[in-house]
């Protein structure tokens, strides 16, 4: 039997699928948590549920629609950035940023963890190859960890849930390389911000994903599918 129980935030993307595999490799009994926050397409939600079935783990699905908008991912009147280079991505916080998304996700995960007796929360945040989101930085997770210690029953009792960010200092290529060693089914993941039938290959998420696979000299298995043009 696993020694630890963990909640893994599973979006359906490449990073979260890798983190799920890491949590399993760490010997944890994993419960996945997938949040539909009102994004304009459900492809990543479908991927999350498929990945959870692949790993034969429980998937808790919740809907918390960010109906107030404020992001290109939740508001169709805001144009999604396309074809940006990494230097441009690093200059400012893009309109694809969803206000306080990780704060909401981690709060939900902390609640599930306390209710289910889990000791860890795994999240696939990354502070290297990312689009400049403030809630993907180590300082943010340090601050949230302090909140858990001060604001939960388990925390004030000295046994607070630990936030685990195994990808935080890795490049996208390093993440993929680690995932390949763990046999992550990347063909089941979905990273693209657009709700098109196939990956747009122009949004920030597609560009960073493509960079990772290109650095390793291998083709993204999602783009090997017959309906996807590379």
UniProtKB/TrEMBL annotation:
Cofactor: Zn(2+)
Family annotation (Pfam families): QueC
EC number: 6.3.4.20
Binding site for Zn(2+): 192, 200, 203, 206
Recorded catalytic activity of this chain's protein: 7-carboxy-7-carbaguanine + NH4(+) + 2 ATP = 7-cyano-7-carbaguanine + 2 AMP + 2 diphosphate + 2 H(+)
InterPro entries (alphabetical): QueC, Rossmann-like_a/b/a_fold
Pathway the protein contributes to: Purine metabolism; 7-cyano-7-deazaguanine biosynthesis
Binding site for ATP: 10-20
Cofactor note (record): Binds 1 zinc ion per subunit.
Swiss-Prot/TrEMBL keywords: ATP-binding, Ligase, Metal-binding, Nucleotide-binding, Queuosine biosynthesis, Zinc
A biological-process GO annotation: tRNA queuosine(34) biosynthetic process
Domain of life from the UniProt record: Bacteria
GO molecular function, one term: ligase activity, forming carbon-nitrogen bonds
PANTHER family: 7-CYANO-7-DEAZAGUANINE SYNTHASE (PTHR42914)
Family the entry assigns: Belongs to the QueC family.
Function of the molecule: Catalyzes the ATP-dependent conversion of 7-carboxy-7-deazaguanine (CDG) to 7-cyano-7-deazaguanine (preQ(0)).
Protein name from the UniProt record: 7-cyano-7-deazaguanine synthase
Organism of this sequence: Candidatus Abzuiibacterium crystallinum
